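Reopening this ticket.

The earlier resolution said the output was attached, but the attachment link was broken on my side. Pasting everything inline this time so it's all in one place.
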Amino acid sequence: MANNQTQGTLGFMDLMSIAVGQIIGAGVMVMSISALGMTGRSVNIAFMIAAVFTLFTMIPTVFVASVARFHGGTYSQYAVFIHPIFAGFMQYTALLSSVSLGMFGIGLASYIGRLIPAVNENQTMWAVIFMLIFFALNWFGTAWMAKVQGFMFYFLVAALVLFTVMGLPHANIGQYFGNDLFGQPLFANGAFGLVEAASYLTYATGGAQVILAFSADAKRPTQDIPKVIIIATLSVAFLYALLATVIGGVMPADEVIAIGNLAPIAELIMPKPLYYFFVIAGAGFALGTTLNSSIASNFPPMLRAARDGWFPGIFGKVNKHGVPYVWMFLRMALNIAVVASGFDTGVLGKWTLVIGNVTNLVIVASVGRIDKLFPEQWEKSPYHVNNTVKWLLLGGALFTTSVQAYMNLSGLTMGIIMLNVVSMVAFGGIATYLYKSGKIHMNPSYELV
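Inline output:
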């Protein structure tokens, strides 16, 4: 471990654009409509409850990020707080989830195809092209990626704010919180439906914790990363709640659900030029920012894992911009192959779903050791709390993580569950064997700042 040696390049707004871009993905464009079916017009209330749930799940990351600079992001966190074997195991599971980027390319082509028919007619080709563009942008390193992210970030937020501002006057606010609007109740399925929708929407309000991967590149990691996680999550959730008010108040819920996307509402409340802007900067950049940050956030943990011996050394080679180019090209080729083959990328996402939910519980619990591992830094942290409050907060995080796990796993087939179990045993076995064989040489990957 070294002290005060790393000079980061990412400031507060750079990190904010990455966090917000990761949160605002295609999910809100689809998930808000699904949640509308669960709870009706009270979907805006569900978004605010979801933000509280989400913040609870992020408490461990806020605590961790406030005590040190973690060069390998979550990989370094796992190695320090749990065990090197667990860090290696998680990087192996990340291999599978890293080839599900195709869903963003396909989604991007789908939305742009609403405006340009030629894109819709050759959706697979354009999905590949969009992915190639974002991989090419990431060749130039984190600083350049952050500039591109910042550009898209401002247009993305502008598009969603525009949709909200222009839509609210059409949303019948006077009747919205009663049971008369469109002849439909505010709470379509009572308290259960509201909680169900809020739990579901945690996936639309989550994602800000991805910036831990950029700890090595942050100018003030222990100050900015925790702050960005909290502010980005609450700000986006508030914007989502207003946006959901438009979704629930302009048209009857059953009509919106039948349509399945926000484009008709946008077309109804906006003149054509602004509607085009919303589709490109809103829906398009929502996918673009998520794709961009998903590519970049994978580099630091993979680079550290390769240098520690979990992967062949060639994966640790970097270009002059510090990008592990061998890994980037391999990941790019795999994702293009998945999209070109027509394989269902959703299946790849489910391949590690059980593993992710089980290990999340272990990760949350492990943060309870923070006062033992970083006593001085934890004492000085602005997020420091006494031991009782710490465990109460982590208990809340464990509870909300468990609810998410239940929601995730309840719809899985036995085949998918068994695939997860087999993968977990295989990756765990490989990681244990390599570590005990002496082939793994863990390098210090955090700094006290």
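Reporter confirms the inline version is readable. The domain at 2-448 is CATH 1.20.1740.10 (Amino acid/polyamine transporter I). The chain has one domain: 2-448.
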